[in-house]
Amino acid sequence: MAYSKKYPSLEYNNGVRGRHGVAFRSLTKWQKRFMLEHQNIKHFSKNEQAMKIVFGLYRSGNDSKKTKLFYDWTQGDMKLLESVEQAYDTIDWVCAISGQSIKSRVGEFDVKNFVHPEYWETLDSSLAVNQNIVKSSLAFRQKCQELLLNQQKELMILFKKNANPRKTLD
Questions:
Q1: Same domain, residue pair 57 and 73
Q2: Of 34, 91, 101, 112, which residue has the fewest beta carbons closer than 10 angstroms?
Q3: Pick from 100, 97, 98, 105: nearest CA to 129
């Protein structure tokens, strides 16, 4: 990689198009995006050597969703995007046959979604669906609707809060 691409010549001008006093005209597209997405760089923006080190460490190829880590609030740790999506796509539920705790997918209303995997072969042998599975499916649907409605209300509260910010008096 060329020296000028990896370590840009930083121009410090206030009032020009840029971020934290650094002009964008000398930066590449990924460096501009990096400065816009990472607000914590402002602590290093006045130190040209520190900024060059940060740009040297960061490469535009590592921002792929497949390799990028995301914070999972449900478990409190960093995970890949697929793991986070799976954690938010499932909720804790009870098996309709055995009463064991299982993870059921939110948008799936297949019979196997309400039964523990140990009991899946019993579903294949019988053509009729157990009444407990039907009751579990209806309760699951109501639970999903309730969860989605609560999330929608929380989101609307956030939108209203951010739309009309109140000034705090010091």
A1: no
A2: 101
A3: 97
Token output for 120? 């899946």
Same domain, 75 and 129: yes
pLDDT digits (tens, 9 = 90+) for 93-136: 999 888 899 999 988 888 888 888 898 887 766 656 778 888 98
Model confidence, pTM: 0.52
Put residue 129 in one of left, alpha, beta given phi > 0 → left and psi -120 to 50 → alpha: beta
Q: Do 93 and 114 form a contact (C-beta atoms < 8 A)?
A: yes
The H-assigned helical ranges of 98-130 are 120-125
**Does some domain include residue 170?**
no
Q: Which two tokens stand for residue 57?
A: 């460490």
- The pLDDT value recorded for residue 5 is 56
